[in-house]
Design a protein that fits this description.
CATH topology: TIM Barrel
Strand content: 15-25%
Structural class: alpha/beta
Number of helices: 7
Distance between the termini: 23 Å
CATH architecture: Alpha-Beta Barrel
Number of domains: 1
Low-confidence stretches: 1-7
Largest sheet: 6 strands, parallel
Helix content: 25-40%
Length: 189
C-alpha cells in the first residue's frame, strides 16, 4: 500500500475528542467560541468530535467556519437493523467531515477488533468521510518489546480494505494506550 500523502506536505490536523462530555447546547456554543478564537487557521486543520447527540448542533455551529466536525465512531453498514449504530450515510448527511475509528476505548470497552476497524475505514471512505484510524500499544506490549508487532498488525488489518489510490484520504492517529491518563509522554522515537 502506498504511504498516505507521499510526495505532498500534509496540513497538520488537530482533533479534539470530547468523549462523553458536553451537552448538545454546550457543544454548539464551544464550536462557535472556538471558531471565533481561531480566526484564520492557516497551515492547520481543526476538528472537534462531539457526542453523537451533539453532532447536529455542532455541524450547524461549524458551518462556514474554520472548524470541522468529526464523529467519534461510525458503523460499516449503510443502513439496516443495527440498533444503536450510526452509518457513514447518516453522518455525511449531517455535514460531518471525519470519523474517529478504532479508538482505544472502543477497543477496550466495546470489543472493537482490527477487522471491524477495517470495515469502518472502508465505510468512511465510501462516503467521503476522513477516516482517523487510531493505533496504539498497551503498557504490557511496550514493556515486552512488542510495540512494532502490535502496531504493524493493527495497521495491516485496519488498512486491509484501503485501495492504494485512497491511501492519501485517511489519517493514522498514534494513540499509545500506556500514556493515556498516566502522566507518561510518548516521544517521536
Amino acid at each position: 500500500m502506498a504511504a498516505a500523502g507521499r510526495g505532498r506536505a500534509r496540513v497538520p490536523l488537530i482533533v479534539g475528542n470530547w468523549k462523553m462530555f458536553k451537552t448538545s447546547g454546550e457543544g454548539a456554543e464551544f464550536v462557535r467560541e472556538l471558531a471565533a478564537a481561531l480566526g484564520d487557521p492557516a497551515g492547520r486543520e481543526v476538528m472537534v468530535a462531539p457526542t453523537f447527540t451533539g453532532l447536529y448542533e455542532a455541524c450547524r455551529s461549524a458551518d462556514g467556519t474554520c472548524v470541522s466536525i468529526a464523529a467519534q465512531d461510525v458503523f460499516w453498514e449503510w443502513e439496516g437493523a443495527y440498533t444503536g449504530e450510526v452509518s457513514a450515510t447518516m453522518l455525511s448527511d449531517l455535514g460531518v467531515k471525519a470519523a474517529i475509528i478504532g479508538h482505544s476505548e472502543r477497543r477496550q470497552y466495546f470489543g472493537e477488533t482490527d477487522e471491524s476497524v477495517s470495515k469502518k475505514v472502508w465505510a468512511a471512505l465510501g462516503h467521503d468521510l476522513l477516516p482517523i484510524m487510531c493505533v496504539g500499544e498497551s503498557e504490557d506490549d511496550r514493556e515486552s518489546g512488542a510495540t512494532d508487532d502490535v502496531l504493524s498488525e493493527q495497521l495491516s488489518a485496519g488498512l486491509s480494505s484501503v485501495r492504494d489510490e485512497d491511501a492519501s484520504r485517511l489519517v493514522i492517529a498514534y494513540e499509545p494506550v500506556w500514556a493515556i491518563g498516566t502522566g507518561k509522554t510518548a516521544t517521536p522515537q
